[in-house]
């Protein structure tokens, strides 16, 4: 049944968050008294080989005290990552991007260092991005959503269907600047259309794949396209675009053809536009919570000595605690 599939996918995109055993096996990554990441046992074993950079203990992983500013931290960690990449230890480093993300507890907090984008999932670094729902009120098709098919050459999720525009916040760009930059690069959307860009909130998920952890916060925008506007890729990272009538959207995004970590953005759109309601999904309340995982419980000022840095179940909303599952393998990224 469709409601069961919706909830199954919502749990899948939060497979790390809902795996209590896996959560408890991780150690918090602490920088300047802020928890900025989570370290899995597999990554911990590798970091212990670099004691001049990482101080690993039963309670946490911290950077060496000599690394006390943005530049020294960024340089030292990059050297470790280059060594791990040379040794081909982690699959995610094969997709090295030469693009950095800021490392911080929240979007409003100062950046403590920067890190190669492909490596952030190894450290459970909080990732921020922008997604645009490009929709059309078509005279024949009715409400419809534009989707893109990602280029096969993309290092992650190559060939999958995706939101019409989406991208991560790179060093030096604000949320709004990223929205405009990605809209032009990915879909060739001109400024006269972008002036109608509407911020509608965010979605937050905590996913794990064989590449690592993805604690994602996506800032979401809705944008109505003129009926005669057709997106056109500018940077070679999109294979094609497709206009999908709203009645056909849900089966597509729930299939393995759609990028898992973009699914919450579309589900949020469908909830807000009444396509998913309590009749079509009796667990709508729980679905809404799974679209807005409380990442602030992990990424905040740290209290060392309080265990692995994961808050006890009573701090979480009761429906989410009830969803927590026993240990399971990370999701294959191509699923």
TrEMBL record:
GO terms for molecular function: 8-oxo-dGDP phosphatase activity. It comes from the Eukaryota. CDD domains: NUDIX_Tnr3_like (cd03676). It holds the Pfam family DUF4743. InterPro entries: DUF4743 (IPR031804), NUDIX_hydrolase-like_dom_sf (IPR015797), NUDIX_hydrolase_dom (IPR000086). Keywords: Hydrolase. The keyword 4Fe-4S does not apply. The keyword Hydrolase applies. Residues 115-268 form the Nudix hydrolase domain. This is Nudix hydrolase 24, chloroplastic.
């Amino acid at each position: 049944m469709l409601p069961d599939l919706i909830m199954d996918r919502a749990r899948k995109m939060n497979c790390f968050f809902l795996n209590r055993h896996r959560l408890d096996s991780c150690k918090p990554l602490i920088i300047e008294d802020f928890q900025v990441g989570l370290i899995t046992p597999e990554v911990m074993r590798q970091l212990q080989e670099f004691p001049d950079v990482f101080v690993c203990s039963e309670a946490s992983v911290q950077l060496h005290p000599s690394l006390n500013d943005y530049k020294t931290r960024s340089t030292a960690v990059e050297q470790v990552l280059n060594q791990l990449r040379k040794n081909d230890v982690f699959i995610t480093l094969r997709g090295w991007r030469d693009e950095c993300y800021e490392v911080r507890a929240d979007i409003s907090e100062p950046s403590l260092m920067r890190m190669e984008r492909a490596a952030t999932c190894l450290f459970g670094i909080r990732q921020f991005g922008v997604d645009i729902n490009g929709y059309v009120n078509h005279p024949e098709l009715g409400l419809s959503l534009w989707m893109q098919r990602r280029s096969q050459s993309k290092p992650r999720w190559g060939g999958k269907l995706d939101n019409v525009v989406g991208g991560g916040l790179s060093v030096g760009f604000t949320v709004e600047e990223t929205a405009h930059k990605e809209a032009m690069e990915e879909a060739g959307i001109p400024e006269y259309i972008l002036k109608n860009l509407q911020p509608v909130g965010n979605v937050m998920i905590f996913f794990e794949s064989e590449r690592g952890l993805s604690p994602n916060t996506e800032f979401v925008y809705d944008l109505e396209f003129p009926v005669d506007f057709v997106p056109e890729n500018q940077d070679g990272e999109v294979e094609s675009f497709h206009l999908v009538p709203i009645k056909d959207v849900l089966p597509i995004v729930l299939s393995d053809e759609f990028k898992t970590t973009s699914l919450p953005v579309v589900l949020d759109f469908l909830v807000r536009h009444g396509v998913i309601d309590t009749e079509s999904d009796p667990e709508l309340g729980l679905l809404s919570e799974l679209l807005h995982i409380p990442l602030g419980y992990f990424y905040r000022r740290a209290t060392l000595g309080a265990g692995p840095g994961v808050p006890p179940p009573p701090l979480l909303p009761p429906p989410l605690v009830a969803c927590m599952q026993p240990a399971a393998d990370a999701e294959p990224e191509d699923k």
